[in-house]
Structures are given as C-alpha cells and as structure tokens.
Give the backbone structure.
Amino acid sequence: MVLPAKTFEIKEDATLEWIHGKLRGFREEEAYEPEEGDKLTLTTEIVDLKLEEDLLSGVLLKDFMRTHLYKRQALEAPTTEEAPFWIRPFKGRTFVIVMAPSVARGVKKFLSNHVANKLSEVLFGVVGAITEVRIPDETLQNLHESNPQGTRLIWFDDVDIPSVNKLCLAGQGLADTGLYKDYLEHGRIWYVVFSVQKRGITVGITRSCVVTLFSKSTSEEFVNYVTEDLLDLIE
C-alpha cells in the first residue's frame, strides 16, 4: 500500500470546535455543460466530520470531469475523488494533514493542495490562511544519520554541479559512503526513504512535508505517525 499525505498549517487562530462548526454541512455546486449530453451538477462537499478531544477529521469529496479514451475517441465522464483530512493542534500551532489516495498521475498534488485552499476558503473566506510547511534539510540529514542502516533512498536537490539538477543514493549504510559526504557538499537533502523501527513501517519524507507510506498499515496508524512523530520535525 502506498499512501501519500501532505501537511499544512492554519495561520489564523481557531479552535477545533469553531472549525468543526464552520465545516459542518459544507457543500457547493457547479453546473457543467458538456459538448454532448445533458448538463451536470458537480459538487464539492465535506462529509464524515468527527471531533475528538485533540483531533478533527473529515473527508472532502470533489467531483470533476475526467477524459479517457474509448475506441480511439476522447470521452468525458464525471468522477469523484475523496481526500481524508485531519486537523491537529500541536505545540501552539494548528496543522492540517491531507491524505491523497493513489489516483491518476498529477491528481495527488492537485488534490492535497486543493483541499488546503478549499478549507482556507470555507473557514476564513480567503485562500492563503492555510499554508505549506517545511522540514529543514538539516533535520532530514540528522534523521538519516541517527539510523543510517534504516535509510533506503536519499535525493539531493539545489545541486551546484553544472548541468546536474538532482542526485540520488540508494542502499544501506549511506552515511558511511564517500559519495554521501560528497553529495552533501554539492546539494541539499530533499527526500529520504527510511524505516521507522519503533512503528515497523517504511516512509518517505520531503522537505515540503509530503510523507508517503510504503508499508502495510492502516490509515489510522499512518496518521498517528504523522501527528505524533512528523509534526515535531517541522520548522
């Protein structure tokens, strides 16, 4: 199972109770008229809202038109994507975790960013009240070097070697290799795939706080990892 999730931060002051009240019952409709066929109504709505002591969860459902080929003809058909989300206060800040399922190429990023912007719109009337967050590359470096045998993959970006955009290392014991030390001098760690021993899972983390689960696990266990371990890494 491959589950990607992206973490954002609510920059405005808001309690979970207030957020729950603003999101409850949200639904908007958009008329869509295809070139052929009847007019459709596409909806965006929030369902399955659940408020616990320190966690608010829900699912954003969004309809859109997808084009597919049938006997060499491009046909449009409505489809609905689901994006579960969780809102969690943590050390005086409030974070939003959006889980985008493995769907068509290019949709995962759109879906997670769209959910953040839509929640910002619904809650505060503007886009931008919910923003992206970052994990420092030094933190990813320390995360890897604290357990180098658990690291499976490292990507470097901001490479200063002419005509080289990214560098990659794969394998075990990467902290002990000359290439690893050399790459650190020429670039910054962008993405690390490693084993979380205490949870028995393998995850990949980017500086933009996108986390991908590569192990068999439940959504609840994955979210527990994000809310209990990952939020501590955010700058």
Notes: DSSP finds five helices and twelve strands in the chain. The helical segments are 16-23, 107-124, 137-145, 178-186, 219-228.
